[in-house]
Amino acid sequence: xxxxxxxxxxxxxxxxxxxxxxxxxxxxxxxxxxxxxxxxxxxxxxxxxxxxxxxxxxxxxxxxxxxxxxxxxxxxxxxxxxxxxxxxxxxxxxxxxxxxxxxxxxxxxxxxxxxxxxxxxxxxxxxxxxxxxxxxxxxxxxxxxxxxxxxxxxxxxxxxxxxxxxxxxxxxxxxxxxxxxxxxxxxxxxxxxxxxxxxxxxxxxxxxxxxxxxxxxxxxxxxxxxxxxxxxxxxxxxxxxxxxxxxxxxxxxxxxxxxxxxxxxxxxxxxxxxxxxxxxxxxxxxxxxxxxxxxxxxxxxxx
Length: 303
Fold this sequence. Notes:
Blueprint: E1 4-13, E2 16-26, E3 29-34, H1 41-48, E4 56-61, E5 64-65, H2 70-73, E6 76-79, H3 91-101, H4 106-115, H5 131-143, E7 149-153, H6 161-176, E8 180-185, H7 188-194, E9 197-202, E10 205-210, H8 212-220, E11 224-230, H9 233-240, E12 246-252, E13 257-262, H10 265-278, E14 283-288, H11 293-302
Parallel strand pairs: 3-8, 3-9, 6-7, 7-8
Antiparallel strand pairs: 1-2, 1-4, 4-5, 9-10, 11-13, 11-14, 12-13
Helix pairs in contact: 3-4, 3-5, 4-5
């Protein structure tokens, strides 16, 4: 039962704070690290993998500090997002080289290539690989020593649907075997399909944790801002503002629309068409104006 504990960990680069006082535990099974681009996911993974030291706080593996501890590296496999690879090598040569760094050989490398279904392209140079193939050969190099912990940074980038399904099934199986698997993503649906537990980070801070149902509920229950264009904006605003599902309405004269903050998502979506019908108001456009990942996740930080 291998566990990674992040305890009040921060990491800064000069005056830039990449990770700010983050605390959570990664237990056996599959955990998704969810957050928008630039949230600090890669920095956290690099600290868990032993490539970065926390500027403050601790990152430990079963109670043992990871930074500058060569013994724990034997238990960790890392699949980075960056494409820094030796393109002049074949896939097999690349995985064999990583096996030899662990004191292993060609047999273990061949097994790892088979695990990620890359045997068919193992003798081609990496320079000829697609992004999805590069992801899989990086995965093979991370698995060559059969680590108890696997850390993957945006592993599904560039994969076609079939490759994505194969990798998801592999990670699911590893989690079921009792390994500690963590992967990062900025796509909620991707995390929902695979992770039994989710940690959310935004702007370097820990925003939420739980299973995907809890995270989805937190996102759904947050205040929503809608842009609404209608045949009579002022009459619509007067009819909506009295209902407790709306917290505020602004008339955007320049855009010719209403900006409505809804605090009860379910009630508001039923209310709007009913009010429009009862007052003979035609709805020309109804669109969410705050649906970027950054706005959704930022709400979780302040909730």
